[in-house]
Design a protein that fits this description.
This protein is of the alpha+beta class. The chain contains nine helices and four strands; from the N terminus they run E-H-E-H-E-E-H-H-H-H-H-H-H. The longest helix is centred in the middle third of the chain and has 21 residues.
């Protein structure tokens, strides 16, 4: 049985949500951030050398990184759920979104967070961050025009990836500038699997990380 190591207010919420969508049995181990530094506790370092969440344990191996974890679980236990048919155009787009979200789209948000933590109020850096953020969110907004899901006509794991990104934008108060993304986020948060994940994972807010 998969053990999901869940850190409050983190990307591991994706994995709890995924397990609920797939209706898989799992062991949930909760870890709490340091209330002063917001860093992960040493207990996670004991599970994986990176000491981060999400991390899962399965078959005697610990795996980190939300994208890798999602792909592993879906491939090993999903029975064809939450993934478009292999070799289809939708599957190509699915792969793009699975990696785009944590690559290009999340990067400027992390730069923004690090600049805030370091009290770095540099005009040039802020301009670059805002440009990259706007470029990516404009792209996401356009892709969600007249679409219920980000890939094809059904819910996939790519929607789980994307929702966390949009929750980060929501935490900054900027989501209202992107009506398609805002409506999409609200739809995803209304899913029963998402709601069950909130119940299992506990209080969840990204306000402190934006």
């Amino acid at each position: 049985m998969i053990t999901v190591h869940h850190l409050n207010n983190s990307r591991s919420q994706r994995i709890v949500w995924l397990m609920e969508e797939l209706e898989l049995d799992y062991i949930l181990v909760k870890h709490q951030r340091d209330p002063q530094t917001f860093m992960a506790p040493p207990s996670l370092k004991a599970i994986h050398p990176l000491g981060k969440a999400p991390t899962i344990e399965d078959r005697g191996i610990a795996i980190a990184e939300s994208g890798a974890i999602i792909e592993y679980i879906v491939n090993e236990y999903g029975k064809g759920q939450l993934v478009p048919e292999k070799n289809s155009l939708d599957h190509m787009r699915y792969l793009e979104w699975m990696h785009y979200v944590e690559g290009s789209a999340t990067a400027p948000l992390m730069f923004q967070l690090l600049a805030k933590i370091a009290s770095c109020d540099h005009e040039g850096l802020s301009a670059i961050i805002n440009y990259l953020k706007s470029a990516n969110l404009t792209f996401v907004e356009a892709q969600l025009a007249d679409k219920e899901f980000i890939v094809g006509d059904t819910f996939t794991a790519a929607d789980i990836q994307l929702t966390f990104l949009l929750e980060m934008i929501d935490a900054t108060g900027e989501i209202n500038a992107y009506p398609n993304a805002n409506a999409y986020l609200l739809r995803m948060q209304q899913r029963s699997g998402y709601q069950k994940a909130l119940e299992k994972g506990g209080p969840y807010s990204l306000k402190d990380f934006t």
